[in-house]
Amino acid sequence: MPGGTWFGIETARRGMNVHQQALDITGHNLANASTPGYSRQEAVIKASSPYTSPDINTSVTPGQFGTGSLVEMIRRVKDEYLDNNVRQATTDYAYWNEQISFHQRAEALFAEPAGAGIGQRIVDFFKAWMDLNNTPQDSGIKAAVVQVGDELAALMSSTYSQLTDIQNSIYDSTNNTGKMYQLTTQINNLLSEISSLSETIKKITSLGQQPNDLLDLRDQKLEQLSEIGPVTLTEDPLTGNISNLTFFGINIDLQNLSQFSLEIDINDDILLRYNKTPAEDFNLTANAGDYNLGGGLLGAEKARQDIIDYKDRLGEIAKFLYDNIQDVGVATFYEGDLASGTFKVNQTLNTTPALLDGTRARAMANLRDKDMSAAIPYNLEEYFSELVTVVGNKSKTSDGLAANNQAIKQQITSLRDSVSGVSTDEELTKMIQFQYGYMASARMINTIDGMLDVVINRLSRG
Known about the structure:
By secondary structure, the protein is mostly helical. The chain has helices spanning 7-31, 80-110, 118-134, 139-170, 179-206, 212-228, 284-287, 296-327, 347-351, 361-366, 380-420, 424-458; strands at residues 41-47, 69-76, 231-235, 242-247, 250-251, 260-264, 270-274, 280-283, 334-335, 344-345.
């Protein structure tokens, strides 16, 4: 009853427990001050139920007696709006960042070292034909024409082959290898982990507890998933349970997960397929240029398409040489094609350059100024120069936009951390506050103990 012997001790005991729990939470925060993805936690303290609840048998008193305090819950400090912004910024950044290494590797292939690149070999090739025009029967110049022509074919074939290697390192559908395949495997692993964590979180919240550390871990997995592609979700603000999750616009059922895979359609487009019944597809190839969607998987496909474009342009140069040399009457100078790895100077001419018809040298030299086609109003040198520029600009663009989006991501992440992150100064201040609260409650018990000592041991002697 209020005013009874043990009433004050119980109130003070509750105070000690509350401040001890608050100190424990503060210690947990300090221990995780440098833990990536950790969200600050705090004890939500409220007054415990007063004595007593009024009913028909309750005696009339001046007012209800307070019974102390209790920790209602351990709250995770989060701003869901900022979390969504961080995921979106991560998706935007990953789209460009994933392309950088592939574009840089391609750019290195088209770097034109002095006198050794394809561009210079094109110039040397036509100069050799001009020289042959001056002395059509000179066997030495004929040999030079064949040699330079063969060097040009070898450089183009080597560059084309290395571009194919880069393309396959992004995705090789024949062997199911490459970065896109790795990212798809990572998608399935992350979704499996998110599903398992969500199930555990549901079980814990159903018992009335707050699985704060598990929620942090799940948020980390969601952020990792957002690096691969766009993620949207609806989350219960009280329990943290996910009621709706989409990836590339595909609805994900966390309770009945299906696997993602990469498929090739009849147009040779790469599809991200969610193999439920019925299956849902997202066309990566058709949407690769949409940077607003973002994500590393889409960025990788965009880089793959760019590499294919470079190969196609090299193929157009080889075809122009093959077709037009035939047209001006220099039969079978080049043979084969880049795609099959057989583009080279005819073996007979390579062995016996003297067979080259020097009387056609002027017509050959004039090809230097001929436009590639009606659709491509550039001569051979101009077209290759444009290709080098395109390759360099792609590398520069992906690098620059990745840097810009990284800065945006860092800024938004800093805003989130200012809300959810641990400030050691703030936690140390709270530690002192809770320490004094604990000491005050303990002193209250000590004081009541002294009063009881007077009543029990001293008054009874009188």
